[in-house]
Every structure is written in structure tokens, then in C-alpha cells.
């Protein structure tokens, strides 16, 4: 008899606790679930390209050799440092849209449009490094433009703003890098 009474009491306490801590409401920011998914998928592909370019730029900062060492070592550092900070903004935008941000080499390798060339650093000339960075920056730009289209259709101004900023930066990097080869 006493046992039954105490169980009932405990249950009532638990129910009270549940009522005091409501679960998270559904996301309702004025963009449909379908559009949020399309935008987040696009941003994930952008992130994979941006991360692959970041890693390539850092790789070349470490491995560049030759008469241009000093200026390229410094230039690559400036670029990868800026790119690293931007990766965080993109990941957090994907989270704000309600989806998980890619964050593993396997996901990035599957999603990126930028080719990796293992072994390149063993013998690469600085010109080949710069050429690859031009191509990779331009690939990032093309993906950003695709995401801009999807974001505009979904009326997602924050993503449009973020992609516009990244476009400005990567188009500038592509120009600066290309200038070294002209
Ligand atoms: Fe360094």
C-alpha cells in the first residue's frame, strides 16, 4: 500500500519537471523546410570546397620553395588565415538553418569539386602551386554563385550576404594569384 503511494508521488514529480522544461520548438524563421534544406546542402558543398582550398593553401605555405619563397610563404599565410575564420561563419549558418555542418575529411572529400593531387609537394614548382590555387579559388567562386541562386529563391538574405562576401574575397585571391603567372 505504502509502495504504491510513493510510486504515484514520484511520477507526479517527474511530470511536473517535464512541464517546466519544454522541448525545443520547430524552426520557424520564415524560410520553408525545403528551402532551408536546399540552402544548407549548397552551403555544405561550398564548405567542402572552401575547406579543401584552405588546406591546399596551408599545404603550399609549408612546402613552397624557390626564389619566390618569402613572398609566397607570407601571401599563402594571409589567405589561409582569412579562409579559416570564414569556415566558422559558413558552418554556423548551416546550423542556424537547422542542419548539421560537415566536419570530417570523408565528408569534405565526398562533397568538394576541387581535385587534390597527393605527392605534388614533393617536387612542385611554385608556379604549379599558384596555378592550382587560381583554379581552386575559381571553383569556390562557382559554387558560391550556385548557393547565391538557391538562397535568393529562398529569400535567405543572410546566406546571400555571406556568399557575396566570400565571392568578393575568392575572386580577389584568384586575381592576385593569377597576376603572379602573367
Ligand atoms: Fe607558418
UniProtKB/TrEMBL annotation:
<dbReference type="InterPro" id="IPR023188">
    <property type="entry name" value="DPS_DNA-bd_CS"/>
</dbReference>
<dbReference type="InterPro" id="IPR008331">
    <property type="entry name" value="Ferritin_DPS_dom"/>
</dbReference>
<comment type="similarity">
    <text>Belongs to the Dps family.</text>
</comment>
<protein>
    <submittedName>
        <fullName>DNA starvation/stationary phase protection protein</fullName>
        <ecNumber>1.16.-.-</ecNumber>
    </submittedName>
</protein>
<dbReference type="GO" id="GO:0016722">
    <property type="term" value="F:oxidoreductase activity, acting on metal ions"/>
</dbReference>
<dbReference type="InterPro" id="IPR009078">
    <property type="entry name" value="Ferritin-like_SF"/>
</dbReference>
<dbReference type="Pfam" id="PF00210">
    <property type="entry name" value="Ferritin"/>
</dbReference>
<keyword id="KW-0560">Oxidoreductase</keyword>
<feature type="domain" description="Ferritin/DPS">
    <location>
        <begin position="43"/>
        <end position="182"/>
    </location>
</feature>
<dbReference type="InterPro" id="IPR002177">
    <property type="entry name" value="DPS_DNA-bd"/>
</dbReference>
<dbReference type="GO" id="GO:0008199">
    <property type="term" value="F:ferric iron binding"/>
</dbReference>
<dbReference type="InterPro" id="IPR012347">
    <property type="entry name" value="Ferritin-like"/>
</dbReference>
Amino acid at each position: 500500500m505504502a509502495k504504491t503511494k510513493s510510486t504515484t508521488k514520484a511520477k507526479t514529480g517527474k511530470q511536473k519537471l517535464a512541464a517546466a522544461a519544454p522541448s525545443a520548438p520547430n524552426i520557424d524563421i520564415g524560410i520553408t523546410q525545403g528551402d532551408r534544406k536546399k540552402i544548407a546542402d549548397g552551403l555544405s558543398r561550398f564548405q567542402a570546397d572552401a575547406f579543401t582550398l584552405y588546406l591546399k593553401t596551408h599545404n603550399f605555405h609549408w612546402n613552397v620553395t624557390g626564389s619566390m619563397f618569402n613572398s609566397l610563404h607570407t601571401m599563402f599565410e594571409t589567405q589561409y588565415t582569412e579562409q579559416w575564420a570564414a569556415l566558422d561563419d559558413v558552418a554556423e549558418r548551416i546550423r542556424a538553418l537547422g542542419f548539421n555542418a560537415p566536419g570530417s575529411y570523408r565528408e569534405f572529400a565526398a562533397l568538394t569539386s576541387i581535385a587534390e593531387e597527393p605527392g605534388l609537394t614533393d617536387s612542385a614548382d611554385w608556379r604549379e602551386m599558384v596555378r592550382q590555387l587560381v583554379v581552386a579559388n575559381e571553383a569556390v567562386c562557382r559554387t558560391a554563385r550556385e548557393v547565391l541562386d538557391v538562397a535568393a529563391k529562398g529569400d535567405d538574405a543572410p546566406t546571400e550576404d555571406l556568399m557575396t562576401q566570400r565571392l568578393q574575397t575568392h575572386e580577389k585571391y584568384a586575381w592576385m594569384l593569377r597576376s603572379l603567372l602573367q
